[in-house]
């Protein structure tokens, strides 16, 4: 179920290489837990982020939660469609609901992240 | 943790459950926004078996309840319901409730789940005669059916027509040959009904109403629906720590009688705050306990509930602010701790297209 064409963090972000840039979003498990997403605070294009930085914020009907940068890089693009349609994060967490793109990343940092099986076991542990 | 008669049904429907008022209750099934929209546009079912019900009767029940409740009791007509509060001696709110007049000297009082035991004890120790007061919560089931399609569903399921029921009235009706109490009340702002009966019977009612198209809705949607209507929730807008007078309620707080807490509630010298609505300028939510600032940055109050309001398309909040700056249109800022959100004090309800008070004929026409 979890796409195996990308990497994952323990904090429920996914990151996927698309040419020179990396696309970042949240997992299906994360959107399910958040419930209906009502607002996404996008990062500034051009901002430099370090791995683990809080760089976006997602609000649902019930709560707000942070999105952390899976790797260091520069914000290359943000998903402006989320400003008017934050529900895309629920409807299509792995495709249309992407949140931002990073460039100038060190691709070796990706190797340290979880693969789909590793992420699934994190989710299973959480649910126990 | 307690379970309602509908617990197994909630699990079967895949509800996300959480503790509320001592019960394991459904928060959402399909999703809060979908359930909210279903209530506004079609019909939704809410398990409210957790709420408390008391039968209060006796020769002195009218003066006794006048003493214990903030709303007037004696002039409530048989067959009608009324919203009111119960206060302590300091004017703090012990609970909010709906009173049903069953007979000349007999009432049904419906209270919140978490406060039910304390309420009953309070009532019994503050009246002259509680011999015939009974807490029937444990064996009383209750389901709310709300939304524009609810009258059609009720007409289909109940033995007697509900077509003549007015807002805030109730009747005894029959469902599957068993007596139920049906009131035209609710907590959503939409036309709807609350059905009281034996727990197994309301479970059957839930299933039958689902067959007719009503969707199950959880406490999440119940909260966004009531918030859009500016209705208070006990534990948030109402608590022992805040004087009932600050709600600004008119009808629920009688000015022409004495009740427990009335000197404090009606004391103008301490009447400094007001419960208000705040409409935020964007989708970003204010949350409970966020501080409210005026344009110069002075602290003027605190948020008690806040959420994105699906039918308004913006974030809204309920809050207590200084009375002097509580008029609609006043610009305010909400400090979320991370940033300040712009908003203004708004007229309540936030959502103005609610169908709750409309004549039932409007929803039954297709039947003719």
Précis, in short:
The complex is a heterodimer of chains A (128) and B (368). Chain A has 128 residues and is α+β, with helices and mostly antiparallel strands.
Describe this structure as you would to a colleague:
The complex is a heterodimer of chains A (128) and B (368). Chain A contains five helices and nine strands; from the N terminus they run βββαβββββααβαα. Chain A has one domain (7-127): RNA polymerase II/Efflux pump adaptor protein, barrel-sandwich hybrid domain (OB fold (Dihydrolipoamide Acetyltransferase, E2P)). The two termini of chain A are 19 Å apart. The longest helix of chain A has 12 residues, at 116-127. Helices cover 25% and strands 34% of the residues of chain A. Chain B has helices at residues 7-12, 32-41, 61-68, 116-125, 150-157, 199-211, 219-228, 262-265, 361-364, and strands at residues 16-20, 23-28, 44-47, 52-57, 81-87, 93-103, 106-111, 133-135, 141-146, 170-175, 178-183, 192-197, 215-216, 273-280, 291-293, 299-309, 314-322, 331-335, 340-346. Chain B is built from nine helices and 19 strands. Chain B is of the alpha+beta class. In chain B, the strands form four sheets. In chain B, strands 10-11-12-9-3-13 form a six-stranded mixed beta sheet, sandwiched between helices. Chain B has a six-stranded antiparallel beta barrel with strand order 14-17-16-15-18-19. Chain B has a five-stranded antiparallel beta sheet with strand order 5-6-7-4-8, with helices on one face. The longest helix of chain B has 13 residues, at 199-211. The radius of gyration of chain B is 20 Å and the shape is globular. The A-B interface holds A 35-36, 38-39, 41, 59, 61-62, 64, 86-87, 90 and B 28, 31-34, 220, 224, 282-285, 287, 307-308, 310, 315.
């Amino acid at each position: 179920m979890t796409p195996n064409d990308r990497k994952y963090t323990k904090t429920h972000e996914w990151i996927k290489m698309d040419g020179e840039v990396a696309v970042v979003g949240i997992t299906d498990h994360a959107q399910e837990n958040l419930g209906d997403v009502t607002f996404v605070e996008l990062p500034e294009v051009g901002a430099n982020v370090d791995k683990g930085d809080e760089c976006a914020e997602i609000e649902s009907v019930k709560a707000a939660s942070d999105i952390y940068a899976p790797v260091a890089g520069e914000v290359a693009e943000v998903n402006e469609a989320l400003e008017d349609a934050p529900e895309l994060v629920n409807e299509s967490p792995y495709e249309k609901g992407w949140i931002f793109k990073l460039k100038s990343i060190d691709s070796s940092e990706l190797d340290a992240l979880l693969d789909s099986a590793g992420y699934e076991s994190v989710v299973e542990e959480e649910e126990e | 943790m307690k379970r309602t008669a509908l617990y197994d049904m909630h699990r079967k429907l895949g509800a996300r459950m959480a503790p509320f008022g001592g019960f394991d209750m459904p928060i959402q099934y399909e999703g809060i926004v979908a359930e909210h929209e279903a209530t506004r546009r079609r019909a939704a079912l809410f398990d409210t078996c957790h709420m408390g019900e008391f039968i209060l009767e006796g020769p002195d029940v009218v003066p006794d309840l006048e003493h214990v409740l903030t709303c007037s009791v004696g002039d409530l007509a048989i067959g009608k319901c009324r919203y009111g509060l119960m206060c302590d001696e300091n004017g703090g709110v012990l609970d909010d409730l709906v009173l049903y007049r069953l007979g000349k000297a007999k009432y049904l009082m419906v209270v919140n789940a978490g406060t039910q035991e304390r309420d009953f004890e309070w009532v019994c120790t503050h009246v002259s005669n509680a011999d015939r007061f009974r807490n029937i919560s444990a064996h009383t089931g209750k389901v709310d059916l709300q939304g524009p399609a609810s009258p059609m569903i009720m007409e289909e399921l109940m033995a007697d027509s509900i077509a003549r029921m007015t807002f805030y009235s109730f009747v005894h009706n029959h469902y599957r040959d068993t007596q139920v109490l049906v009131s035209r009340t609710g907590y959503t702002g939409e036309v709807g009904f609350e059905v009281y009966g034996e727990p197994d019977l309301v479970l059957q009612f839930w299933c039958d109403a689902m067959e007719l198209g009503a969707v199950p809705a959880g406490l999440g949607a119940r909260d966004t629906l009531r918030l859009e209507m500016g209705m208070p929730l006990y534990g948030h807008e109402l608590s022992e720590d805040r004087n009932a007078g600050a709600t600004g309620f008119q009808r629920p707080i009688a000015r022409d009688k004495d009740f427990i807490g009335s000197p404090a509630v009606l004391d103008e010298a301490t009447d400094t705050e007001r419960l208000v609505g705040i409409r935020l300028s964007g989708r970003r939510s204010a949350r409970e306990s966020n501080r409210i600032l005026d344009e110069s940055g002075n602290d003027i109050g605190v948020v008690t509930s806040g959420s994105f309001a699906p039918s308004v398309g913006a974030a809204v909040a309920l809050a207590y602010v200084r009375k002097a700056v509580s008029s609609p249109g006043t610009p305010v800022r909400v400090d979320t701790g991370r940033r300040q959100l712009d908003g203004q004090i708004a007229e309540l309800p936030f959502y103005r297209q609610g169908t709750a008070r409309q004549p039932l004929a409007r929803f039954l026409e297709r039947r003719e």
